[in-house]
Amino acid sequence: MSVHTTACPRNCFSTCGMRVTVEEGKLRLLESHPENRATSEGLCLKGQSYIERVYSADRVLYPLRRATDGSFERISWEEALGVIAERLGAIRDQYGPRSVLFYSGSGTKGLMNDLALDFWRLFGGCTTTYGDLCWPAGLEATRLTLGDNRHNAPEDLANANLILFWGKNPAETNIHQMRFVEQALDRGARLIVIDPRRTQTAEGAELLVQIEPGTDGALALGIAHLLIRDGAIDHDFISRHVLGFDEFAQMVQEYPPDRVAAITDVPVEILHRLAAAIGQTRPLSICAGFGMQRYTNSGQTMRALIALLAITGNLGRPGAGWIYANLQSHVFHSLKDPLALFPPPEDSGSIRVSVSTALLGRHMLEQEDPPLKAAWIERGNPVTQNPETHRVLEAIRSLEFRVVVDQFLTDTALEADIVLPAKTFFEQTDVIGAYWHSYIQIKDKLIEPPGEVKPESEIYYRLGHALGLDEEGLTASIPEPGDTAVEAYLTRRLEAFPELTLDRLRQGPVLAPGTETVAWSDLRFATPSGKVELLSEEAERRWGLDRLPGFLEPLETPGAEGTDGSRFPLHLLTPNTKDRIHSQFNNLPSIRKLNPKTLVHIHPVDARVRGVEDGAWVRVFNDRGSVELEAKLDYGLKPGCVSVTNGWWLSEGGGINQLSAARETDMAHGAAYHDNAVEVEGL
Ligand SMILES: Nc1nc2c(c(=O)[nH]1)N[C@H]1C(S)=C(S)[C@@H](COP(=O)(O)OP(=O)(O)OC[C@H]3O[C@@H](n4cnc5c(=O)[nH]c(N)nc54)[C@H](O)[C@@H]3O)O[C@H]1N2
Ligand SMILES: Nc1nc2c(c(=O)[nH]1)N[C@H]1C(S)=C(S)[C@@H](COP(=O)(O)OP(=O)(O)OC[C@H]3O[C@@H](n4cnc5c(=O)[nH]c(N)nc54)[C@H](O)[C@@H]3O)O[C@H]1N2
Ligand SMILES: [Mo]
Known about the structure:
Elements: E1 2-7, E2 17-23, E3 26-32, H1 45-48, H2 50-54, E4 64-66, E5 72-74, H3 77-95, E6 100-104, H4 115-123, E7 126-130, H5 136-146, E8 162-166, H6 170-173, H7 177-186, E9 190-194, E10 207-209, H8 216-229, H9 235-241, E11 242-243, H10 245-252, H11 257-264, H12 268-280, E12 284-288, H13 298-311, E13 321-323, E14 351-356, H14 360-366, E15 374-378, H15 382-385, H16 389-397, E16 401-406, E17 418-421, E18 430-432, E19 439-443, H17 456-466, H18 471-477, H19 483-494, H20 502-507, E20 510-511, E21 532-533, H21 537-543, E22 570-573, H22 589-594, E23 599-602, H23 604-609, E24 617-621, E25 626-633, E26 641-643, E27 677-682
Parallel strand pairs: 6-7, 6-15, 7-14, 8-9, 8-12, 9-10, 11-21, 12-13, 15-16, 16-17, 22-26, 23-25
Antiparallel strand pairs: 1-2, 2-3, 4-5, 4-17, 18-19, 19-20, 22-27, 23-26, 24-25, 24-27
Helix pairs in contact: 3-17, 4-17, 5-13, 8-11, 8-12, 8-13, 14-16
Bound molecules: ligand MGD (2 copies) and molybdenum atom.
The site of molybdenum atom has 3 residues, from loops.
């Protein structure tokens, strides 16, 4: 029996440090690692379910090929790589390497992921994506305003006197953050939640503001209006550290309480309460969610929210700040990649970066010179997770050849010609950062992969040989199969940081070099002016937006005349949920038992006028698609909204992205999932 350090590489705030007991080559016990201060409290249910996941009978353990009757048959690696080399080689020779799309999702984090593009360069090139499904509008809004994405250490939240969860639901999506909230509350801090849903996070709050979705920018400007009018601002901080205050103050004059109440559906009295809380309680931390920035106006929204911290001087101090994404652990070039959100202005060598992730289906179909003929998809489940499912399916089905690398037969894998089995993070060593705390952690190889599973690096190495790629280039870029070469590769990647060796990381999590516990404590912001920029030239230059964070209606406001939503009266929210990471985990019996079916939450008032009772089957639909689900009457939801957690597979009757539109956010090419008007009818 032996005990090892590792870390969970899911796309999740927590990126938990883990301690794993291995006995006779098998995982036996998973615990949280006490030295990751942010996550030492314990693992979530998903974390605890890894033993079940790794040894699941549903796991793909061998290469599979689609048979003529549509089912999958097991084939050998030699056969699989032979077929792939032949098909990809022929497509490359006929149409050029850029006719192959390389698509990767957020299924696992780590330095080893970088090898994929190294392989595709050796292949001669490929087409790949820009933008991201997850967080770009908020990242870019933060970068424009503060200069960089970093925030105070997670445990510092305990020092806040007012915590505002604005469109974030950490009780489900960042459960370890709740410990620091509880510590703050024990000290007498106040908690306010702004969310159209009465979430688990809202249970402990003194105030839940159920805002009209997509109107948070107007709310922030309305609060700023009151703060400035009443003089509840930090003049000294503003004069030293804020650029564009005068212009901002002038703009917010256009947002008096009556107008803001009409836009946001937040009563004037509540607006005053919010302004009073923000004006009077310091330090204030605003924890802004990613869900709120899935709108066509959300970059500007996020800028307006940060402005509230700037005008009240709540930056650069303990207990204060903008808690959105903390990229202080992104010290390796590769871990900065999530920030490579923009298509390069010029041709970027052999790789064509021309497909917007948010517009995946449409852009795949639109590629010319050459059009796409094949796709390689790994670490992602775009059929379930990307907007406008029918278009994604159409695009994937229009190709001549598709390879999917995954651990399970997801909706996307079901579209493949060849499915290759993917490792889990217990089966290959890697190094990862995080986006909430600043620890660099090892995820160590602890068990041999089951069946004939091979890590991606080995797949690429072998495929490179099968394709007859330049031997020297291949050996120089991709570690040869085996643990020694992988460790040598990682050691090389860590070379610039003497404090980060694999041996040291094996002892426990290490704070990234240069980590600041209180971000921006020197009050020198990384913007062109060195100040917090409420007025951003770059917002205009790069994104064609107003230099000030003015409010724009989202494109698809339900029932609103003249918008894309005019024909459908309900607003569909598709948030994340506790026991899944997007489309992962719900296929496990233990998790399934707790979450047996997809439900559409609807307010009883909206249900009654449609004759829908609790537990009834309903059709949720718009022009883009239709899904049949069971209704759950929910008094906690804002009337006019319906809510379905994202991630349910199409193959099990889910697939909520059949209803979402492929639209980008106003900045940084995010996906505006929540700009989504629907109707519900009983079946
Ligand atoms: N358990 C679990 N944890 C996760 C994930 C997961 O799938 N499962 N996913 C991880 C990832 S990749 C992400 S991106 C994060 C997301 O983390 P969060 O941002 O916390 O999650 P979401 O559920 O996307 O959205 C949060 C809340 O925003 C609310 N919301 C929607 N529209 C609006 C609006 O217009 N205004 C306001 N004020 N609120 C609105 C929703 O009702 C929801 O409760 O979580 C990460 N952590
Ligand atoms: N309607 C709606 N849709 C959404 C969202 C929303 O709020 N509403 N949220 C969006 C957000 S925030 C995100 S981040 C995306 C997530 O979208 P994706 O990144 O596509 O999400 P996952 O469902 O986590 O799929 C990851 C896949 O990677 C596989 N995988 C895990 N580890 C490995 C590995 O080591 N190797 C390989 N090859 N595969 C592996 C998993 O089995 C899984 O099938 O979804 C987006 N979709
Ligand atoms: Mo995400």
